[in-house]
UniProtKB/TrEMBL annotation:
Species per Swiss-Prot/TrEMBL record: Lentzea albida
Any Pfam family matching the protein: DUF3500
Protein name: DUF3500 domain-containing protein
Annotated InterPro entries: DUF3500
């Protein structure tokens, strides 16, 4: 798996000319840039798809498709395509385009040093760091505007449909007593609560726990977590899922339970935060994010790598002395 990710990244790097590489590659130690992420419209560091040749754009998509599961790559591609749909709805006054997505590299594969990349633009942010044979890929943000495209009341396009439907199924499955615990506010926030904060700290968990749910509902809560983690290629998702303690999850809902009205939910665990918000544009504008408290941007992997490196150098100096 790691070999495939490195090969796809090398393929993109090899396609770049010298002046492009100057804009595309930054140091993995540039913590400020690595933590500076966003999901709103606007330019980003690195190279935009619109600045690249066709083969280079395909190489960027190849990087995404290697790290993401097939269904999540399809979601990401649909999210990017929606920029043109939204631009048409707005009359083109914001000049949106599906080439307005940027790629920035943090170091390059090869050798023992960490490296990574980010592919990002409106409603998409995938942050990858590789260190010592392990891969980190959070924050992982997907959004959609419009969230649903319909024809005579029937949905013809909804890339983040399951993110909503699984949570609604959980509310139905848990029954009225547990639902009263799960619904913690009548009004939904206007966006995901953590926004694009560079770090998120564990907050007091709220809502309902697996112990307060029947077995079918508790299993579905775990399935929702697995669904978000399965945005990654399954080998990577398996590694992430192995770190989850299902008994310590909390699920909470805010806002209306009626379809078509603003709603929000959150799943929390010791090293897990999932947020979903659909309030804007008459509840037709979705934001979703998966984050890890100590592991976003590969911070835990990088800290472990540099700590090991310092100890190795220290031992080497002592032995040589």
């Amino acid at each position: 798996m790691l070999h495939d990710v490195a090969d796809a990244t090398h393929h993109y790097i090899d396609s770049l000319a010298g002046d492009q590489r100057e804009h595309a590659i930054r140091a993995v130690t540039d913590d400020d840039l690595r933590h500076r992420w966003a999901y709103t419209p606007g330019t980003r560091p690195g190279l935009a798809l619109g600045e690249l040749r066709r083969d280079q754009r395909k190489a960027v998509h190849g990087m995404l498709a290697t790290v993401l599961s097939p269904h999540a790559y399809a979601q990401a591609a649909a999210v990017m395509a929606l920029e043109d749909v939204l631009d048409h709805r707005e009359g083109g006054h914001r000049d949106r385009h599906n080439n307005d997505y940027w790629t920035v590299l943090f170091g390059t594969p090869g050798g023992d040093e960490p490296w990574g990349w980010r592919v990002e633009g409106h409603h998409l942010s995938v942050n990858v760091v590789v260190a010592d044979g392990r891969v980190s890929a959070t924050p992982f943000f997907l959004g959609a505007n419009p969230a649903r495209v319909t024809y005579r009341g029937r949905v013809v396009g909804q890339p983040l449909r399951l993110e909503e439907e699984l949570a609604r199924e959980l509310l139905d499955r848990m029954g009225p007593t547990a639902r009263r615990l799960a619904v913690v506010a009548d009004t939904a926030p206007h966006d995901i609560r953590t926004g694009n904060a560079p770090r998120v700290s564990p907050s007091e968990p709220v809502g309902v726990t697996p112990a307060q749910l029947g077995k079918p509902a508790a299993e579905l809560l775990v399935d929702i977590v697995r669904f978000y983690l399965d945005r990654l290629a399954y080998e990577l998702a398996d590694e992430e899922f192995a770190q989850i303690d299902p008994d310590r999850l909390h699920f909470s809902w805010e806002g209306s339970l009626r379809r078509g009205e603003g709603h929000y939910y959150r799943v929390q665990g010791p090293e897990l935060l999932i947020e979903y918000d659909n309030t804007a544009n008459e509840a037709n504008h979705v934001h979703t994010v998966w984050r890890r408290h100590s592991g976003d941007f590969g911070d835990d992997l990088l800290a472990a790598h540099y700590d090991t490196s310092r100890h190795t150098v220290g031992r080497g100096v002592a032995q040589n002395g």
